[in-house]
Give the backbone structure.
Amino acid sequence: MTPVDLLTGIVNRTMPQLNFEPGPDFVGRVSVGKALIFFIILAFAFTLGKVVAIYLKKRYSHQIKKDRLNLLTLLVRVAIFMVGFFIAAPAVFETSMFFLGLILAGVIIAIAFSSAKILTDFVAGIALFYDHPIRTGDFVEIGANSGIVEEIRLLSTVLRTENGVYVRVPNDEIYTKNVNNYHANAARRFDYEVGIRYEDDVGTAVEVLEKLFDSYTHVLKNPRPEVFVSSFDSSSVQIKFRLWLPAKWVNTMDGASFNTSALQDVKKTLENSGIQIAFPQQVVWFGDETLRQGFDRGHL
Amino acid sequence: MYGTYHENFSYMDPDISLSFSGPAGTRRYIREYAGKRVEKNLASDTGRILINPVEPVNLPDGLTSHLEISFDPVIIKPGDEPFIYLKFPVETAVFLESGGAYDVLDIFSLVPTKYSLYGLPETGCITKWYRSGVYTEIPETDPLREGVIELRFRNSGAVWAEVSRAVFQNTDMHLYYGDMVSMAAVMEIWNPKLARTSFLRRPLISTMTPSVELYTARKIPIVQQSGYVMEQGIS
């Protein structure tokens, strides 16, 4: 008994209605009329899917982000088309849903074996749709890549880096690598530090900086900016300031869009208040007074 | 400044100047404020020009759709329905209108803007923040800078409530203008940490004109809103 005979025997025992005897039966029973009906049903399912997709886009375009809506409509269209196929095929080809299911499962298994990576990306894409750790417009860091999410597709996600480069990240990587989403929360904190001289008045420095930050539109009123002495270094009193900004306003990792003007203003404000930013220096004390006087006169 | 214009006009203020000039088809819109000049050439016949206050959450970046007004604490006993007047910052829009369709030409504000966070970073939202006094009568305002909001409290909870801020969503704001700019709102207090704010479609003075809001002008479809639920506290 050949393997083909064995397979035919098994199929005929489990699905006798197929009558898988050799001969022209399976294809031969399909008439032109039945084939026409098959294609008409498929065309109807295709058109219905398109109409439903347009309706969904009109109805939800202001509530659901574009890429998520595109993915949703794609899935709905595929589902409607598959339903159409499963309705049309058994009636026309005189075969059972079970057999069609087997074919579909076989196709999926074949795809899985031939391109497992595509399948994992696809599954990750579906998971992203429900889990949404990232959304379009978010500034994210995925592995070595960082940028604004331009589009989330079924198999991959497109980023635009800070310097305008297009980066395609397979969806599978988003699940296997660390993802930092800088826009996930409403606000982000940025910490900066400046050193002033020991002879400068710390209270004045804190006061003028608080006033400066209060004048900035994007430095949030709540949580309030924090300005405080953080440490006493060898040459300076370190003043730290913590500022909260709207997360979506800062499309970089280091807050450059903010600090390009703010740090400049900090320096200017401190200087206008008579406070100097410290630089490394050392004070030398002489144990012998005559030595010091000699030093002052330039004899040493 | 507010109103509908069919022909060229100009408005001068110590702080701001605004003008439409030139023949139809080649009109020029110029606005100068705080050393900045906005200039637009209108190649088409503009139809009507409408200038009115709009929802005060658009400038400078459109980062939020919420307005937060902070004020000195107001204490309300259970079952009471007192009202107060607060001030809010005004944003003004210049619309081009033709055949019932509005297009936004410009939006500006003469009031400094400040953003804030209502709630926690992970669950809260960014708001446009404004500090107001608490008034028992309609306060004097410059309609180009500040508007007046009548806020009625309804304490439906079982305990006294202390309120020192109100957060509103822009989607159901209804503005009116005349000698002043106004809105009317209700805050329904469910408990000392939870309340809902919503707007009423009525002016403070019957002769006031309803504004064309940006949501109306841009024909943005909105799901019927029943106000904004303040889940992150009211004081």
Notes: Strands of chain A lie at 139-142, 145-152, 156-160, 166-170, 179-181, 187-196, 226-232, 237-246. The first strand of chain A starts at residue 139 and ends at 142. Confidence is low (pLDDT under 50) at residues 20-28 of chain A. The CA atoms of residues 91 and 113 of chain A lie 31 Å apart.
